[in-house]
């Protein structure tokens, strides 16, 4: 059985070379990418066994996704569907002021009809951690129920539940997200949330340390991690807030950075690290991910160790 089981959609990512615009592109690079599978890959790279659950169309594109994820060393347990399509997203890379642009194409996808009864609940209940994100319930009303039911199954089986809030404004409004996601909170042990999302969606005020305290106290989470972009992250646990700055990095591809952070944090906690140490390794993994094209953090444990040991690249306090 796996240490961590994740649930969600993985899309095919299509992007033109360099900083070309989609409307002028003659070719597109194809990669698989999705928050939940990205987390599974990062956790696996740091030593945790990981399984990704999903519902996937029985098509060449669906098989491409599953094959690529298996090639990254994680287990896949999917429901193959003859209905619905494979989700995709288009990515334009560019510097400022244009910036990186993401265009989703994920209507009527196979996973939008996924129900909890279709999955092997024993996989979740025999794992140490079940992980999903706020992206999944944003995809359909069916998935809102499915996410809730899978979290309940994890709680019933004694499996810790980790959840990345991961608000996506292109999928739903702050009001919709708040109404849906707060209903999931009673089933969550570890919450990861961006400071901006805690303010914009949940209406909390204060600096990241205050946000972590408020979230942990109000919703009775075991651990709260508040990310703050280039400034690093804070982690609340046992009513104590720990702080770690981001490591310096030359960014090649920022997509998947947060997923790399979360996967590494969970893996190190599973390995017995305390919260400050897990934050340290999560920040190092995130920094390395930004140097790698694609969504997945194709790092090694030795590389992460090297970044952590080079104190000139980051400051913790």
UniProtKB/TrEMBL annotation:
Q: Known InterPro entries for this protein?
A: KDG_KDGal_kin_Halo (IPR054871), PfkB_Carbo_kinase (IPR050306), PfkB_dom (IPR011611), Ribokinase-like (IPR029056)
Question: Pfam families annotated for this entry?
Answer: PfkB
Q: Which domain of life is it from?
A: Archaea
Sorted keywords for this record are: Kinase, Transferase
Q: Which residues form the Carbohydrate kinase PfkB domain?
A: 1-296
MF terms (GO), sorted A to Z: kinase activity
Keyword flag Transferase:
yes
Record flagged with keyword Nucleotide-binding: no
Query: Which SUPFAM superfamilies is this protein grouped with?
Result: Ribokinase-like
Q: What does the sequence similarity comment in the record state about its family?
A: Belongs to the carbohydrate kinase PfkB family.
Give the NCBIfam families listed for this entry.
Answer: KDG_KDGal_kin_Halo
Protein name per UniProt:
2-keto-3-deoxygluconate kinase
């Amino acid at each position: 059985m796996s240490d961590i089981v994740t649930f969600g959609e993985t899309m095919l990512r299509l992007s033109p070379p360099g900083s070309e615009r989609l409307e002028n592109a003659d070719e597109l690079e194809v990669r698989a990418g999705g928050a939940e599978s990205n987390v599974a890959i990062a956790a696996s790279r740091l030593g945790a066994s990981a399984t990704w659950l999903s519902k996937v169309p029985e098509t060449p594109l669906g098989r491409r996704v599953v094959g690529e994820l298996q090639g990254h060393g994680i287990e896949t347990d999917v429901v193959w569907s003859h209905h619905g399509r494979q989700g995709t997203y288009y990515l334009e890379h560019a510097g400022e002021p244009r910036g990186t642009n993401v265009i989703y194409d994920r209507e009527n996808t196979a996973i939008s009809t996924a129900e909890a009864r279709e999955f092997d609940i024993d996989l979740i209940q025999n794992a140490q951690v079940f992980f999903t994100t706020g992206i999944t319930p944003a995809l359909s009303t069916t998935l809102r129920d499915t996410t809730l039911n899978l979290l309940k199954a994890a709680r019933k089986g004694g499996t810790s539940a980790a959840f990345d809030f991961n608000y996506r404004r292109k999928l739903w409004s702050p009001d919709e997200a708040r109404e849906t996601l707060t209903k999931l909170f009673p089933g969550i042990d570890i919450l990861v949330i961006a400071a901006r999302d805690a303010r914009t969606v949940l209406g909390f005020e204060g600096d990241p340390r205050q946000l972590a305290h408020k979230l942990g106290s109000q919703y009775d989470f075991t651990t709260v991690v508040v990310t703050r972009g280039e400034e690093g992250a804070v982690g609340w646990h046992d009513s104590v807030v720990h702080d770690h700055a981001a490591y310096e990095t030359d960014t090649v591809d920022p997509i998947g950075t947060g997923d790399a952070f979360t996967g590494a944090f969970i893996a190190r906690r599973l390995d017995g690290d305390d919260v400050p140490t897990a934050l340290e390794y999560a920040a190092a993994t995130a920094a390395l991910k930004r140097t790698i094209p694609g969504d997945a953090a194709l790092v090694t444990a030795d590389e992460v160790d090297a970044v952590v040991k080079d104190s000139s690249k980051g400051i913790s306090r």
